Task: inverse folding
């Protein structure tokens, strides 16, 4: 006799990041001014959408987990407001000072406590762009992972994952438990918080998990990022009226014999 | 003590060496010279003897090792993690260079976790400072760069950004080739590739096109792609798309240009509302002429543009369409 199927449990991992579109480069220091705005990482929002789409179609309990400073609570609230069931904040104020493997191990330690079947993460982060945390969690847990996921089907605890690979579409089959890195958000799976959802989210308690800050010596050191100089010899038209800018471009296209 | 080894994991696809791996040869040779070291290329796969011989003929390669195992074709991160970890443990290199391709990054992260190593992705330059490897990489969407130093992690493990180094060429000499054996663990073979469909030249012949107009997230919503299509129509160009627009569901993946999309090199590439993230640039930086329209003067796309207009695309593109129409008529 087969065991009664227990409900699928999903963890969706979220990072709070600076609003990348608000980043400006200071002309004198050449450093990036990231401003005060913080948002949910783009691909993580897609992962939340995919987790909720799986919940709708197959039934699941979805928990959002963020590791970061206390302010990262905001992205968890947003996730709750769109339909995620529970949220956990891992207190990691200096989350950008540790390397991806350390972050992955901290998250993996939390994941094992809850016996999740499936972990969804974004393909990459808008700020650090390593894309390493997902596979490194999978490796730490000794689970398989599938990256670049765009769509998921589930039957008999086996996932069928569509992925956008290099100029191709692939379908991968993988048994649970597994880690998926979500690349895209189909319009129909995107969720936006409603006022009602926001009110309900505020009533939920978000447990804060304390972790022992890693004591191991830092393996990497990085310098303050600065903008690189322009390499191209190209022409840049700025601050001229629209028609004039368009006229200059058309003239240039002719000169280059492109039209 | 024997000399330090710089190890490259060579990549191949459809029975050919991938061009990015020839760039890694250049990077690795330079690094090996800085430490007076030896440079070894490892090639893994199934039935790849001829790929190994091709690598042995590339200038700068000191030695080639081959790892053959049926589980290594097709590409899946599990078996590749096992294979590459095993190669590293057997060769004991001072530095490991992996192509920053989609597949390379997929297993590199797992290998780093398995072997407890720090990994720096998308390195643009590699150097040695006080005996330590320093890698430069771009962050924040390519706007800025940081120098990352390996202080307490050996071997230094990096993936190297495509286009960062020039390609090495073939030469007369043939480096020695030897085989390594690996065992593949069951837990690394749980995922199976059940279907793969290559996009053909793209919906409207993207890869063979002479002119391409591509749209990005700056268009704001799917419907605004009409502007890009209209501009493409007057220029008789194919329409491409950035990853962000495909991710948001505005365009099909078969229209995408970049690391997970098509690599194109038209005579004219016109980028509208595209920031120029590294993953986009690798797919189009080989274009003869690059035109960018973007309202952010710091957008990385301007760094490679031959002609850029800083301004609002919703004003500039209609003006451009109008003027092009009157020119053509
Ligand atoms: C594993 C992986 C693979 C990827 N593969 C690819 C790939 O193959 N191809 C790809 O393109 N990306 C790919 N990406 C995504 C890539 O990292 C970027 O997120 C993406 O290229 C950004 O697209 P974008 O330039 O359209 O959007 P954004 O970076 O958001 O840029 C939008 C730009 O529009 C400008 N803008 C906004 N409004 C206006 C206006 N009114 N007028 C003028 N300009 C305006 C802004 O200044 C900004 O520069 C990949 C990412 C990952 C993690």
Result:
């Amino acid at each position: 006799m087969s065991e009664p199927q227990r409900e699928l449990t999903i963890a969706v991992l979220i990072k709070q990041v600076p609003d990348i579109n608000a980043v400006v480069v200071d002309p004198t220091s050449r450093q990036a001014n990231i401003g005060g705005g913080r948002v949910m990482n783009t691909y993580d929002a897609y992962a939340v959408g995919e987790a909720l789409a799986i919940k709708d179609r197959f039934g699941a309990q979805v928990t959002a987990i963020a590791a970061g400073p206390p302010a990262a609570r905001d992205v968890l609230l947003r996730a709750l407001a769109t339909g995620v069931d529970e949220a956990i904040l891992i207190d990691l104020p200096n989350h950008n000072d540790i390397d991806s493997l350390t972050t992955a191990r901290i998250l993996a330690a939390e994941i094992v406590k809850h016996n999740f079947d499936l972990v969804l993460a974004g393909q990459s982060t808008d700020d650090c762009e390593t894309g390493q945390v997902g596979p490194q969690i999978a490796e730490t847990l000794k689970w398989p992972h599938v990256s670049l996921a765009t769509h998921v089907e589930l039957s008999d605890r086996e996932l069928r994952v569509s992925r956008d690979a290099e100029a191709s579409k692939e379908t991968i089959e993988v048994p649970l438990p597994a880690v998926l890195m979500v690349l895209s958000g189909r319009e129909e799976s995107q969720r936006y918080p409603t006022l009602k959802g926001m009110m309900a989210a505020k009533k939920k308690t978000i447990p804060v998990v304390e972790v022992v800050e890693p004591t191991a010596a830092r393996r990497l050191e990085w310098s303050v990022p600065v903008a690189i100089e322009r390499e191209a010899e190209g022409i840049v038209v700025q601050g001229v009226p629209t028609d004039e800018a368009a006229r200059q471009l058309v003239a240039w296209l002719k000169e280059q014999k492109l039209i | 003590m024997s000399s330090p080894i710089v190890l490259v994991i060579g990549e191949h696809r459809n029975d050919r060496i991938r061009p990015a791996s020839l760039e890694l040869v250049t990077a690795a040779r330079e690094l090996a010279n800085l430490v007076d070291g030896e440079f070894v290329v490892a090639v893994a796969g199934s039935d790849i003897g001829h790929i190994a011989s091709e690598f042995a003929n590339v200038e700068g390669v000191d030695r080639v090792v081959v790892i053959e195992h049926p589980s290594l074709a097709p590409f899946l991160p599990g078996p590749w993690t096992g294979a590459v970890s095993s190669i590293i443990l057997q060769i004991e290199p001072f530095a490991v260079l992996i192509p920053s391709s989609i597949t390379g990054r997929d297993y590199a992260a797992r290998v780093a976790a398995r072997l407890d190593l720090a990994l720096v992705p998308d390195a643009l330059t590699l150097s040695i400072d006080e005996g330590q490897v320093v890698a430069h990489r771009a962050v924040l969407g390519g706007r800025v760069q940081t120098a990352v130093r390996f202080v307490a992690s050996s071997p230094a493990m990096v993936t190297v950004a495509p286009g960062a180094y020039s390609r090495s060429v073939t030469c007369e000499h043939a480096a020695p080739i030897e085989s390594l054996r690996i065992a593949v663990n069951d837990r690394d073979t749980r995922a199976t590739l059940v279907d793969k469909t290559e996009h053909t030249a793209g919906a409207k012949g993207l890869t063979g096109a002479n002119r391409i107009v591509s749209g990005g997230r700056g268009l704001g919503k799917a419907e605004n792609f009409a502007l890009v299509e209209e501009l493409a129509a007057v220029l008789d160009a194919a329409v491409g798309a950035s990853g962000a627009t495909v991710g948001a569901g505005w365009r099909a993946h078969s229209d995408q240009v970049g690391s997970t999309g098509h690599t194109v090199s038209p005579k004219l590439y016109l980028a509208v509302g595209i920031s120029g993230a590294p993953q986009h640039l690798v797919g189009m930086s080989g274009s003869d002429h690059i035109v960018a329209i973007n309202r952010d003067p710091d957008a990385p796309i301007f760094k490679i543009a031959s002609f850029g207009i800083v301004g609002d695309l919703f004003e500039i593109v209609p003006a451009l369409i109008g003027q092009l129409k009157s020119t053509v008529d």
In short: The pocket of flavin-adenine dinucleotide is lined by residues A 21, 123-124, 131; B 141, 216-218, 242-245, 256-261, 273-275, 277, 279-280, 283, 294-296, 299, 312-314 (CB under 6 Å). The two ends of chain B are 74 Å apart (CA to CA). The domain at 5-189 of chain B is CATH 3.40.50.620 (Rossmann fold). Chain B has nine helices and 18 strands.
